[in-house]
Design a protein that fits this description.
This protein has 465 residues and is α/β, with parallel strands linked by helices. The protein has 20 helices and 16 strands. The longest helix has 22 residues.
Length: 465
């Protein structure tokens, strides 16, 4: 911020010009588009669907509503719009509504400029300060959003018709910025009505008298589909005032789901412990979510959030950490025997089409089995697997999923064909990854009804007989 103008007089000597916030956002978006940069960062699988629609909305200077099921990144997308604001913006020091120094709108801002003229002090605010967000709740009031008469200011002797008696709400205080409401249908309908003028005429009315405030805002909202939420609805006149409605979606590809999983998870390794997550394990978790979004046993109107994938990934890694710590090993590698640990991450994040609580466990079991089969078909192939199957059948018994990776690897040494097939799937000589690959092969063969499996006290046992 060194060297920035400190008064209006100094500001006039620069190239600064007043721009409405939507023009500012559009200009910065145009600069990104011309330079080949993404419109916003951190969004996965939206390049060909959501982001082009958002580009057009910004170029059209529209207010936007994002419509989609839970966990589709609507809030993250809205917050990323802050990147399109100028990094620093001058406002009149002492004004509540971020008044433009060259074009103040509030009575207080106008008074300050009239009193001090070109010596009016400036305050520079970062773009992060020009964003406000409100989660719509049933107890939200007009006072929260727009403002209320301040009885203290009235007691000081001001008239009710004086704008200075008001305590402004979130919307006016976000003047020259982006205001967002999450879960807009949850806002009571009478409060939604109070937003109609804000979206169109940009004026407000408080306690029966009109305060004309030409607010400069980009208004953004998120909502779940109307056919799902039973807590409220989005009134038609309000929906009509948004220039663009953009439909969001879940990751369309397994690779995209994996990317989001890695991007959003909060993995913090215990000291002295390394972590290796095999590609096929990440793919297996992503496949669980993809299958859940197609399952007839799950209520698809509520959706299957990406948060489920993230939670399962964190639990899977935690299970690997637990095994490594208890066995005194320096490396943690998640493997199929850790999948039992992700059940709490799925439970509660899906809505079962049924009334019996036991149905949820059965559905989760089918999802994990289906994803394991799909991952087996994707990553396992070749004659080595047939040789491994024959080997297990000949030997009659192989124990998998012991607590220690080293012990499991030692078991594999007695099955050369299984070890060779596992090493090929692992694509690595790392013993932990090889053990994980062997479990994937054995479980895949079992689910394909080519091997029997029995449960032992210390882990799973696969038998060819």
């Amino acid at each position: 911020m060194t060297g920035l103008p400190k008064t209006i007089g100094e500001l006039r000597l620069t190239e600064y010009r007043t721009r409405p916030v939507k023009i500012e956002i559009r200009d910065n978006a145009v600069a990104r588009m011309r330079s080949g940069l993404p419109l916003v960062s951190g969004m996965v699988d939206y390049d060909d669907t959501v982001l082009p629609e958002l580009e057009r909305a910004i170029l059209a200077l529209h207010d936007v509503i994002f419509l989609g099921e839970r966990g589709q990144g609507k809030t993250r997308l809205i917050r990323s719009l802050v990147e399109l604001l100028d990094e620093w913006t001058p406002v009149i020091d002492g004004s509540e509504l971020n008044d433009d120094p060259l074009n103040p709108t509030s009575s207080r801002g106008i008074e300050i400029v009239q009193e001090f003229g070109d010596e009016t002090a400036l305050r520079w605010i970062h773009r992060s300060e020009r964003y406000s967000e409100k989660l719509a709740t049933p107890d939200t009031s007009i006072a929260d959003l727009i403002g209320e008469v301040d009885p203290v200011k009235v007691a000081e002797g001001r008239y009710l018709a004086d704008e200075r008696t008001l305590h402004f709400g979130l919307v006016p205080r976000t003047n020259r910025g982006i205001f967002a409401i999450n879960e807009l249908p949850d806002l009571p309908e009478r409060i939604q009505v109070g937003l109609l003028n804000l979206l169109e005429e940009r004026d407000v009315q408080i306690r029966g008298y009109k305060i004309r405030l030409p607010l400069d805002l980009m208004f953004v909202a998120s909502a779940n589909p109307e056919d799902y939420t039973n807590r409220g609805r989005l009134i038609t006149p309000l929906k009509d005032r948004f220039g663009t409605q953009i439909r969001t979606h879940y990751p369309l590809k397994i690779s995209s789901e994996v990317e989001v999983m890695h991007q959003e998870s909060d993995i913090r390794k215990p000291e002295g412990l390394d972590l290796i997550v095999p590609e096929f394990m990440s793919s297996l978790l992503a496949t669980i979510s993809q299958l859940a979004r197609k399952s007839s046993s799950i209520n698809q109107r509520s959706g299957v959030s990406v948060r489920m994938s993230v939670a399962c990934y964190e639990l899977l890694v935690a299970s690997a950490f637990s095994r490594a710590l208890r066995c005194g090993e320096s490396e943690a590698v998640p493997r199929p025997s850790d999948l039992d640990a992700i059940v709490p991450g799925i439970s509660g994040k899906i809505e079962i089409e049924g009334l019996d609580d036991s149905d949820e466990i059965k559905v989760i079991g089918r999802l994990i089995s289906g994803a394991t089969q799909a991952t087996y078909r994707q990553f396992v192939e070749g004659s080595e697997v047939l040789d491994a199957q024959k080997e297990v059948e000949a030997e009659g018994f192989v124990v998998s999923a012991e607590r220690s990776t080293q012990e499991s690897y030692d078991v594999l040494l007695g099955f050369p064909c299984l070890l060779a097939a596992s090493s090929k799937v692992a694509g690595s000589e790392n013993r932990g990854v090889v053990v994980a690959a062997s479990e994937l092969i054995l479980e895949g063969l079992h689910l394909a009804k080519r091997l029997n499996r029995v449960e032992l006290d210390d882990g799973r046992a696969y038998s060819g007989r």
